[in-house]
Amino acid sequence: MADPQLVVETGRIAVVRINRPEVHNALNASVLAEIGKAHRRLTNDPVTRAIIVTGSGSRAFSAGADLAEIAELEAVEAESMLRAGGSVMSQIEQSSVPMIGAINGLALGGGFELALSLSFNISSVNASFGLPESGLGLIPGYGGTQRLALAVGTPQALHLMLSRERLDADRAYALGLTVAPPVAPDALMDAALRIAEAVADGGPHANAAILRSVRATRSADAVGLDIEVRAAAAAISSSEGREGIAAFRSRRTPQFPDCNLREDGRGS
């Protein structure tokens, strides 16, 4: 039986739709695992020439990780979960079939990290993008620190992560995070399908070779990804992370105590 949290439509143009609109399509371990399974199945289907990834409803592509799932995790558990999800992101980044994000609302945290793993993205005018984890005492854990820097350059990536600025659709397009001017929400899927049809008209071996050749020097670095996931797991289980998650779930401002970064090891 298919997981109702993920809807997959097959064909020449396949559509993968995250289907948790009641929680802004938050990514939990089950959804990420199902995305990985769907990707493997679709890329092994000789009919599939392009894959569109989007979210159910108009409010969110995905607003990020499911904080209810990670709230009580210890570092070892968090690292295992992050590595599993990160493996799916890397699998998508290395896809032999072009993958197009149709960003239909919030793409925050893990949702933005998923978008960064895709071949390229388009968006509706109501889309917004960001990696706001530091406001909760956390850091991106699915490759965001690496792929955002590759996409927009190190200074822009650091500014976006440290300031937690949320990019609107026009700013995301200006930075090259999307490849076409944003469209009306009800026109997004038609626009994505038009682009996907054009992509699918190319030779599948040629398309795969283009993806492989570009990634030869532009993929996320394995060392950087490993450093990120270890730091992200430590942050989830830290007192700072616990306070940030609790504050978010209680809809209050987190209270982070002063600390000596050299003494606690997180800043060395």
TrEMBL record:
SUPFAM superfamilies to which the protein is assigned, alphabetical: ClpP/crotonase
Pfam families (UniProt xref): ECH_1
Protein origin, superkingdom: Bacteria
PANTHER family: ENOYL-COA HYDRATASE, MITOCHONDRIAL, ENOYL-COA HYDRATASE-RELATED
Protein name: Enoyl-CoA hydratase-related protein
Organism encoding this protein: Nocardioides endophyticus
